[in-house]
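Progress note, sequence design subtask.
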């Protein structure tokens, strides 16, 4: 089914009640259902779900089925698919729809969060990350969020927006993923009465504790935690090795890790890094590698914050892989 055909079908079905729409789709294949559901959920973002010309039709069907208002596009799509396939058989299609919607617009769910929650989720993120989120929000919510940022971040975020630097789709997806993950964690913490800062501190304590136990026991505990809560398990594994931990990695481990990092990536990662950390890294690479590092650093000109973060993530990825194998040693141990 072409996108244009799916969009036309969605515009028609969105004027109906979900159960009525489902009756028209009883013979549709799951793939076609997913195509139409994605378009149904997308109509509101495109401003086509509530046009004045369609309102009388929607009101008629609303009155016919005893309801004045239809559900949101995403809820409509869910109800429609469940009416066609049944609650159990619809799960796979709904997962596919959610994944496609996220790929089309990674900031979709973030827009529905409160400005306060988004500000909390952006805590510790770069000004460029904040500027990207600000540019993706409706004007009123964007203004409210801007007022919640601290003054330094506020000024830098506005400067980034004014500079209109090009951001790669991958970087946008990564930033949206980080913010969305934190928003979900904030919701879970609120449900348990725990603040976001407290939650991170708690998980960090668990991570450091696991980092210090024997590899076999650690693996068993992580597997158990993953079975209970996959997102928490992933957060704990990432918090076992953070950027700040590099200063306490044993020299031999650090030397081994840095051997697999290219000079240009290392130079990028060290932009705006603490000077003590910079000197420690330089002290654990060869003179030739240090010279190449200095040369690469001299070629950098106003690198993007997202590129710096990506370079640091690459170094952390190497260290975390060593930690997973039980090969990473810390001076504190």
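Output:
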């Amino acid at each position: 089914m072409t996108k244009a055909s799916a969009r036309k079908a969605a515009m028609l079905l969105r004027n109906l009640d979900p159960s009525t729409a489902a009756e028209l789709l009883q013979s549709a294949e799951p793939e076609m259902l997913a195509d139409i559901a994605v378009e149904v959920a997308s109509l509101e973002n495109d401003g086509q779900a509530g046009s004045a010309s369609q309102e009388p039709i929607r009101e008629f069907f609303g009155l016919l089925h005893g309801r004045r208002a239809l559900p949101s596009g995403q809820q409509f799509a869910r109800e429609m698919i469940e009416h066609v396939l049944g609650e159990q058989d619809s799960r796979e299609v709904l997962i596919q729809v959610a994944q496609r919607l996220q790929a089309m617009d990674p900031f979709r769910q973030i827009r529905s969060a409160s400005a306060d929650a988004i500000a909390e989720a952006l805590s510790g993120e770069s000004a460029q990350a904040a500027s990207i989120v600000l540019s993706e929000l409706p004007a009123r919510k964007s203004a409210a969020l801007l007022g919640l940022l601290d003054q330094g971040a506020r000024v830098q975020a506005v400067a980034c927006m004014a500079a209109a630097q090009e951001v790669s789709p991958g970087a946008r997806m990564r930033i949206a993923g980080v913010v969305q993950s934190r928003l979900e964690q904030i919701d879970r913490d609120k449900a348990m009465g725990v603040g976001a800062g407290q939650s991170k501190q708690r998980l960090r304590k668990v991570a450091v504790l696991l980092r210090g136990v024997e590899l076999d026991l650690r693996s068993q505990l992580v597997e158990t935690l993953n079975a209970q809560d996959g997102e928490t398990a992933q957060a704990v594994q990432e918090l076992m090795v953070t950027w700040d931990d590099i200063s306490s990695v044993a020299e031999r481990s650090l030397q081994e890790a840095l051997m697999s990092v290219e000079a240009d990536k290392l130079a990028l990662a060290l932009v705006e890094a603490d000077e003590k950390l910079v000197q420690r890294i330089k002290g654990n690479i060869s003179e030739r590698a240090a010279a190449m590092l200095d040369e690469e650093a001299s070629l950098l000109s106003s690198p993007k914050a997202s590129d710096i973060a990506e370079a640091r993530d690459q170094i952390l990825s190497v260290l975390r892989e060593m930690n997973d194998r039980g090969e990473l040693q810390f001076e504190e141990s």
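DSSP finds 20 helices and no strands in the chain. Work on this subtask will continue into the next period as scheduled.
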